[in-house]
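Q: Hi! First time asking for a complex rather than a single chain. Here are the components, and I think there are three in total. Is that enough to go on?
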Amino acid sequence: MNARRPLTGIAALSVAALVLAACGGGDDTTDTDAGAGATDAGAEATDAGAEATDAAAGGGDFAEGTTMAELAEAGSIRVGTKFDQPLFGLANLEGTPEGFDVEIAKIIAGELGIDEGSIEWVETPSAIREEVIETDQVDMVVATYTINDERRERITFAGPYYEAGQTLMVRAGEESEITGPEALSDESIRVCSVEGSTPSENIREYLASDDQLTLFSTYQECVDSLDNNQVDVVTTDNVILLGFVSQSDGAYAIAGETFTEEPYGVGIEKGDVEFCEFINETLAAAEEAGTYVEAWNATAGAIEGSEEPTLPEPDPCS
Amino acid sequence: MSVLVDNIDLFWEGFLRSLEIIVFALVGSLVLGTVLAMMRVSPAPPLQRFGSLYVALVRNSPLTVMLFFTAFVLPALGFNAEFFWLGVLGLSLYTAGFVCEAIRSGINAVPAGQAEAARSIGLTFGQSLGQVIMPQAFRSVVPPLGSVIIAMQKNSAILGVFGVGGDLLSVGNRLISAQGFAVSVVFLGVWVGYLAITLPTGALLGLLERKVAIVR
Amino acid sequence: MSTSVLYDAPGPRARRRSRIISVVSIAVILGLLAAAAWRLGQQGQFSPELWSPLFWPGDDDFVTVWGRVGTGIRNTLLAAAAAIALSLAIGVAVTTTRLMLGRGGRLPVVVLVELLRGTPVVVLIFFSGKILPALGVGLDTFWQLVIGLTLYNSVVIAEILRAGVAALPRGQREAGLAIGLTKRQTLLTIQMPQAFRLMLPALISQLVVIVKDTSLAGIILTGPEELLRIGEQLRNFFGNPLQVAILLIILFVTINVLLSRLATYVERKLSESRSKVSSDLDVDADQVADATTADDRRTDAGDASGHGRRVRARPGALSRRSPASRPTQSANSVGPDDRRAWRTTSPDNPGG
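A: Yes, that's all I need. Here is the structure of the assembled complex.
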């Protein structure tokens, strides 16, 4: 029977590793940022006590069966946001994102009676934002998410909560040569943007050839490539670029004016009109109360060249 | 299924792009790998050490880190090239470490008597390697080298996200994310595309293997 | 030093030439490094604030950074462990099924194995990360990664085990059948355990491949926070891609070297307690080992791959070197595609 041992060994090893792995997954949720969707149980259990008081404030008064009631009941919410975008959603050293998007998400969560410790942040690069909503990996996406009709076919947008506009960023000193998107018809200029983002689609019409366009999954990679002379222009929304300019100690500059309008919305599951309306009301209330402007000033408003926004008129929910 | 039919040209372009990457990386990794293998068996200790250090580094760190180096660190050092070539370079540098080991194991599989005989009739290191050892080593190199090549073909799928773009997996990603097509159909297209590369290669190598196989 | 059979013990001229080559090659390598370092220095890459959060314990952020790195290492190892455990379980099942079924019956298994083996791991992670959620299978990203890795590695491991079974002397199976065990009992209690043992080093080097492949999560999935993702976050925070890449290489190489050491250790332990049967195999292996030069073994001992030591378990080398084991394979009626199995089970396989 001696010969049998290795097989028993495999089995034992398998079981041990799986148990370990399962424990590991559970541990993560205490950080809340781990992106671990199915392991909420532990977090919920520990939060239940803390939430009891909060729930009285916001959790109880939602109609049965609505998304709000479910979330308030659960006491936690999964929010998709960027992790690499200064001023809007940038992971800090602990791995928790910070920025205007994050503050907006906190305002919404707060109205549901969920404190920021119970928000689970899921990194959602541009290309997968619809996907994570459709496949129920997050409850909402607040990630510099431009509202457009194509996306509306797949998800529902609440908001907008901010109006941005696309522009160009170049190495400092080159803004006199590249003055706007029209300058990009020169085939030798290489442009960088992010896969699956609106700016990457918008910019195509200005380019002489698709070969000019390099696409990465995050803007940080574009900025690194700009630094390395691998590309000459990074294009996306003005506020995002302002964030990089402000971080760069004068290495980059904004070239020209904005040439599109990019209203940022909160992405939620398609057809969830009640949740959409709830978010719009929450945003309106936040502007009234001043927390909307506070959120801006604490994040994107802190840099030079940004203008204090006013909450745009909400689009009808559908 | 209409996604596949409607976008067949996109898939086709992605397929060709992947093939392009694979062909260049194949040449690159074979050349680099042979150079490395020669370093490792050469009489110069510093070259040997460099070779084994390189192999140890490459074999133990992920391809993603290597591609990160070629796409972001090399340009920072002033080595600017198109992302396509940087990606091909990264894949070649990575695969070369494994090619080197395959070749070296082939060299080691040649019986010692062969090298001794070559030396005893007065051949130099270069001559005995080139005329006696390598032709024999080639035969035992085919199977491990074949697996390295197939693995390289599969690894080529990673290049897309390092600025290369346009390859089969990137096409799949784009169809899903930007345009919201039925994911499973897109996946099927990507899958079939890669199988169309790896399975024939496997069959071909199997054939070659049987041809050159030696029974000692 | 130069004990390779490829060249003679060097005479005075050869020694001089070898010295010249050595000096020149050292000069070239150092020159390249110096040029790179100069270039980096010019760009201010050596400024301490880029390095110290990652490498200097006195830095304010050091503890936080390494807390995050610890999370990354933990998730990487957990994902790899879960993947190899699942792959082993499924691999055993697949191999058993394949070997138990007749020529026609095993066709679907063979086809499935070949299809999965011919697919890039990243495409299979793409499957588990995008297709499964679309089909309504809600898993967190950790398990998406594990499933993607398992889909690929279970068939690789199945092939490793099959190669191991095929490499056993035919007498093992015959003896099992002769004492009245069924085909299945023989396979599970006699052949598989030995095959597992024989292939243990190959299995551990597959673990190295899996550890490396966890970094593919960053390409397709939104999580988990494995090493590479943590590295990306650190890079975004400190803006130091080069330094983070160096840190990642150090970490991955350390983890994988330790794993390879483990493989070597386990192998030695096993060979100490080896039964008579597998020492038959050892004879062949020793021949192979002898064929490798002493110099070669030296470098390999220090080399993370542990290549030299693993020769015995390398079926490719084994089958080539030992005509005796050839008939064994066909006697086990494993099928005509044996040699392909050899190819992919070599630890030289870059994986992915």
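A: The two ends of chain C are 37 Å apart (CA to CA). Let me know if you'd like any chain examined more closely.
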